[in-house]
Amino acid sequence: MAMDEDEDTVMGEAGSQSLPSVTSPRWTSDGPGIQGNGQLNGRSDPSIAPPLLGQSVKLPLSAHSGDSRPEHTAGTGNQGISPPKSLPKSVDSGDATTEDFDKQDSLVEDNSDWTDEDAIARTGLPLASLPSGLCYDVQMRYHCEVRPTADVHPEDPRRIYYIYKELCRAGLVDDPESCRPLVARLLRRINARNATEAEISLVHTPDHFAFVESTKDMSDDELIALEHTRDSIYFNKLTFASSILSVGGAIETCLAVATRKVKNAIAVIRPPGHHAEHDKTMGFCLFNNVSVAARVCQNRLGDRCRKILILDWDVHHGNGIQKAFYEDPNVLYISLHVYSDGKFYPGGEEGDWDHCGEGAGVGRNVNIPWPSQGMGDGDYMYAFQQVVMPIAHEFNPDLVIVASGFDAAAGDELGGCFVTPSCYAHMTHMLMTLANGKVAVCLEGGYNFRSISKSALAVTKTLMGDPPDRLHTTSPSALATTTVRRVMMIQSRHWQCMYPKGPPQDGLFTDRLHDVIRAYQSKQLYDNYKLTSLFIYRTAISKSFENQVLASPNYHQPVPLLVIFHDPPEIMGLPHPVTNKLEAHNCWLADVMKDYIGWAVGKGYAVIDVNIPKHVTIDPSSGKYEEEDENRPTATEELAGYLWDNYIEPSEATEIFFLGVGNAFYGVANLLINRETLYKRVNSVVSFVAENPVRAIASHTQVWLSRWYKDNSLVFVSHTHGVWNSVETRRKPSKRYGQLVQSPKASLSEMLMHHKDEVYQWISERADVHDSETEEEKKPKPKSRSPTKENQGEPRSVAG
């Protein structure tokens, strides 16, 4: 083949030099011969291609180039061109010498730290010329159910068959059934082999190996009975053979990548392995393929493959991999999985974000636990960009192994997520920037044939050099953003690249700010309106209970009573971008409730102000991030019941109004539902809802409750709330949700400020009815909406 057919040119100054149309030169003393067909020593897939330029190569000047410079050769041995040592003089100066012309083609500058030999050695694409690898063996399909039932088992032997056929249809494999034409550089087959007991014992106990091996001699009835004693696993007489072949395939794939026999590879293997623990089979897994392969690479290759990153994007947490390396500083395990508070398989707390490793391995375990199913491309890409890749680059591995379950793919009913093949390709593409591109992808889960086939194809094409397809969805969800930010804060203790940083140590920061703010509010309300603390009997002691319930001096007198249940005031702070410290001058407090209290006291009403902390401080206070207490609604209801029995119901209040703000309203709602006669004493209810669900007020035993609530409530709901979507698409919400008012504001503080006058008017019109009855001039007036004023038996009937 003529050299000009390769369309390779040597770019000289102004393009004046080019390779003539001659047969390809042969390498002399510095390398093997290049055949005329572009093959190396007759082989189409060289392990490492020779440099494109070398001292032994002669680059003749084209006779047709029009260049009048004399041909110059340097050296005596190979008649090659030796790059000059310095920059040439200007050709236009008139005094340029022959040596100056050669210096114009120098590959290095005179002040460079590279030698000429270094510059020449860095030419060419030695890694790009390597093929990608594929490991697949039909014998891995022999692991199947002894007596299949009508419902096909999710871990179907055909899983790997469909993936392999998809690669063949794409023309990536040299197989008789592959579609033609085939790609120029095919996948190089990596032969699977049986893993040895010694290799498997690097992760698993001898008893575990013996147990799996014993299945080959069991009867069918014994194998079926064994299924019922194990966690989500089946057996047959060929299970052991398929399992050790799967482990061996993972080992050979990782070794081929680590030793540069291939540039990267994918292992289409089964049964999967990332759930298998050192002494336990579970979750369709018998031996932990990836973990054994990592250990073999470390033992066999030493420092060449000491640090290994295992990235697990299976929708389930790889509990087996985590346990295998939990104390190992040389293996970084990162898992993206659905967690759902430990309710999603495999369950338990091990997959949560605060499990970061132990001993020497602390910080080498990174869990990104999705709070629910339904995660998509934007969520996974956000996690990769914010957590996976920064930590992986800081770790700087020698080898990347992907525990590649495709059960988070769109279409997989077991996973319930929506990751597209393009997203898998993008994640693969990012991982290829690590470890000089040494990436070994080993199949784990994935149970929809079409989903796993298309996803595996996208990953394989990316490994072979094809750019990923464009993503259509790149924005993360609020759930994903919250999860990733929490993981970043937790991992910031172990990785320099992770921000924001959490508190440096426990015990240094002793007071949580919500307790400090409540103490400040208590003092302000006493100084301005003489509100004092009401005694609340407690079985526990906490700073959060101090000044929790404040009341005006006239709370027991015959005046209208406003009872306010509210969340702590909103705080806005701008932390330092590096240290995450909040400084007082960069924090703001939004306390609108004091305006409502001031208005009520000014009208002569009584006020009981109830602060519902989102977290009850337990001494000594820890410096870690705390979620809202799970029992907060129950605790709020108990407190509301205590106040009703001991302070509100015995009072002589003429009218009683409830004002609920945020999640604190849950206690009021449950009180209305569970106390059958309470609504007869309450005039009306006002609540503000920003993000939390709108609470329904209904009871099977109180048929009038929903209608009463509809007629005697004002429920301000943020315009961003999902309840308005249902209004637009279907029908109006049920009367159980009360009289809904769409607010143009989003946050609770904004809503409280915006709707002050409406609330004032609503309460005034109802509270002042009692006072107007004493006027001499009898005017038509609205009936009291409090059942205490008339018709104590049943509330009035109002059309809903």
TrEMBL record:
<feature type="region of interest" description="Disordered">
    <location>
        <begin position="1"/>
        <end position="115"/>
    </location>
</feature>
<feature type="domain" description="Histone deacetylase">
    <location>
        <begin position="153"/>
        <end position="463"/>
    </location>
</feature>
<dbReference type="InterPro" id="IPR019154">
    <property type="entry name" value="Arb2-like_domain"/>
</dbReference>
<dbReference type="Pfam" id="PF00850">
    <property type="entry name" value="Hist_deacetyl"/>
</dbReference>
<keyword id="KW-0805">Transcription regulation</keyword>
<dbReference type="InterPro" id="IPR023696">
    <property type="entry name" value="Ureohydrolase_dom_sf"/>
</dbReference>
<dbReference type="InterPro" id="IPR037138">
    <property type="entry name" value="His_deacetylse_dom_sf"/>
</dbReference>
<feature type="compositionally biased region" description="Basic and acidic residues">
    <location>
        <begin position="768"/>
        <end position="779"/>
    </location>
</feature>
<keyword id="KW-0678">Repressor</keyword>
<dbReference type="GO" id="GO:0000118">
    <property type="term" value="C:histone deacetylase complex"/>
</dbReference>
<dbReference type="InterPro" id="IPR017321">
    <property type="entry name" value="Hist_deAcase_II_yeast"/>
</dbReference>
<keyword id="KW-0539">Nucleus</keyword>
<feature type="compositionally biased region" description="Acidic residues">
    <location>
        <begin position="1"/>
        <end position="10"/>
    </location>
</feature>
<keyword id="KW-0378">Hydrolase</keyword>
<dbReference type="GO" id="GO:0031078">
    <property type="term" value="F:histone H3K14 deacetylase activity, hydrolytic mechanism"/>
</dbReference>
<dbReference type="InterPro" id="IPR000286">
    <property type="entry name" value="HDACs"/>
</dbReference>
<feature type="domain" description="Arb2-like">
    <location>
        <begin position="512"/>
        <end position="767"/>
    </location>
</feature>
<dbReference type="GO" id="GO:0040029">
    <property type="term" value="P:epigenetic regulation of gene expression"/>
</dbReference>
<protein>
    <recommendedName>
        <fullName>Histone deacetylase</fullName>
        <ecNumber>3.5.1.98</ecNumber>
    </recommendedName>
</protein>
<keyword id="KW-0804">Transcription</keyword>
<dbReference type="Pfam" id="PF09757">
    <property type="entry name" value="Arb2-like"/>
</dbReference>
<dbReference type="InterPro" id="IPR023801">
    <property type="entry name" value="His_deacetylse_dom"/>
</dbReference>
<comment type="function">
    <text>Responsible for the deacetylation of lysine residues on the N-terminal part of the core histones (H2A, H2B, H3 and H4). Histone deacetylation gives a tag for epigenetic repression and plays an important role in transcriptional regulation, cell cycle progression and developmental events.</text>
</comment>
<feature type="region of interest" description="Disordered">
    <location>
        <begin position="768"/>
        <end position="800"/>
    </location>
</feature>
<comment type="similarity">
    <text>Belongs to the histone deacetylase family. HD type 2 subfamily.</text>
</comment>
<keyword id="KW-0156">Chromatin regulator</keyword>
<feature type="compositionally biased region" description="Polar residues">
    <location>
        <begin position="15"/>
        <end position="27"/>
    </location>
</feature>
